[in-house]
From TrEMBL:
The keyword Protein transport does not apply. This is MSP domain-containing protein. PROSITE patterns: MSP. Gene3D superfamilies: CRAL-TRIO lipid binding domain (3.40.525.10), Immunoglobulins (2.60.40.10). It comes from Cryptolaemus montrouzieri.
Length: 297
C-alpha cells in the first residue's frame, strides 16, 4: 500500500487489540487465491466469477395494519395467562360466575398506620355450592397476599389483604395485574395440602376468572377514579443517555486526532517535495561551475 496509508494504518493498528490485528490480512492478485477460491473471485481479481452488479429497485407495498388489543396476554408466574380486552376488565365474567369481588376491577392502595401500602378485597361466594379461590399476580415478588387461597361456603365472604412490599414504590404498580380464580369443591374443610393439589390439577373456565389491575397510590383521586400520569423515567434510560453522550465525546476526540494526523502527513509531503526540488535545483546550479573548472588551463 502507499506509504501514506501505511503510516495511517500503523496508528490504527496501535488502537486495535492483538486478536483483531491477527485477523487483518493484506492480499494482492498473486496471493488472493490463498484466501478466496478461484471460482468465487471476480474476473477483475483474476478469478472466474463474472458477476456484475445491477440495481433492482424495491417495490414498496403498503399493507393495511390493524392493531388489535383483543389478543394481548399477561403471563403469571406459574404459566397461566390472563386475557385482556381493550382497557376494561370484567369482574363478573360469563354466566355462572362463582365469586364477586369488591371493589370491582381496580385495586386501590392506601397507607395504613404503619405507612404500608395495602388494599382490601372482599370476596363473596355467589353460587349455591362451596367454592375454592386462589389469588395470582403478575409480580409475586412485589406483593404479599393474605390469604392467597381458601374455601368459601355458599354466601360466605372473606377479606383478602394485598400489601405492597416496602422495597417497591407505590407509584410503579400501574402495570401489575391480579387474577382471582375460583372453582367448585365438595367441602370447605380442605387442608392446605389438598388445596395445593386441587389447584395444580384444576383448569378454570373464563367465567370463573376475575381480572384486576392496580392503581398507583398517587393516582387514586378522592372519588375513586384513576388519574393517568406520565410514568417516571427509568434509571436505565438515564444511564443509556449518559453512555451515548460519552460515545459522542469520544468520537469527537477521535475525529480531531485523525484530522491532526492528516495535517501532519500533508505537511511532511510538502516538506519532502520542497527538499527534493531544492536538491535538484542545487545540483543544476553546481553543474556549470564544474564544467568551467574542468575547461580552464
Amino acid at each position: 500500500m502507499p506509504w501514506v496509508l501505511s503510516a495511517a494504518f500503523k496508528v490504527i493498528k496501535s488502537w486495535l487489540p492483538e486478536k483483531a490485528v491477527k485477523k487483518i490480512k493484506f492480499v494482492s492478485k498473486k496471493d488472493l487465491k490463498d484466501w478466496v477460491p478461484k471460482d468465487q473471485a471476480l474476473t477483475c481479481w483474476g478469478g472466474e466469477d463474472d458477476y456484475t452488479f445491477s440495481f433492482v429497485p424495491e417495490f414498496s407495498v403498503k399493507d393495511e395494519i390493524t392493531i388489535s388489543t383483543n389478543n394481548r396476554k399477561v403471563r403469571f408466574d406459574d404459566g397461566t395467562q390472563m386475557s385482556e380486552v381493550g382497557s376494561t376488565i370484567s369482574t363478573t365474567g360469563e354466566d355462572g360466575a362463582l365469586l364477586s369481588v369488591s371493589p370491582e376491577g381496580l385495586i386501590k392502595f392506601s397507607r395504613d398506620t404503619d405507612n404500608e401500602c395495602i388494599s382490601n378485597l372482599v370476596l363473596q361466594n355467589i353460587s349455591s355450592s362451596p367454592v375454592s379461590f386462589k389469588v395470582k399476580t403478575t409480580s409475586p415478588e412485589k406483593f404479599r397476599v393474605r390469604p392467597g387461597y381458601g374455601c368459601l361456603s355458599s354466601g360466605g365472604k372473606v377479606v383478602v389483604t394485598v400489601c405492597l412490599l416496602p422495597a417497591y414504590r407505590a407509584s410503579n404498580v400501574a402495570k401489575d395485574k391480579f387474577l382471582i380464580l375460583s372453582t367448585t369443591v365438595e367441602s370447605i374443610d380442605l387442608s392446605n395440602e389438598e388445596l395445593t393439589n386441587l389447584w395444580k390439577n384444576t383448569s378454570t373456565k373464563k367465567g370463573n376468572q376475575i381480572h384486576l389491575r392496580c392503581a398507583p397510590l398517587n393516582d387514586v383521586a378522592k372519588n375513586g377514579s384513576v388519574v393517568h400520569t406520565v410514568p417516571e423515567v427509568e434509571p436505565t434510560i438515564t444511564k443509556l443517555t449518559a453512555t451515548i453522550r460519552d460515545m459522542k465525546e469520544s468520537q469527537k476526540e477521535l475525529y480531531g486526532s485523525v484530522k491532526t494526523l492528516l495535517y501532519v502527513q500533508i505537511s511532511l509531503i510538502v516538506l519532502l517535495l520542497a527538499a527534493i526540488l531544492y536538491l535538484i535545483t542545487s545540483q543544476n546550479n553546481h553543474a556549470p561551475s564544474l564544467v568551467e573548472k574542468s575547461n580552464s588551463p
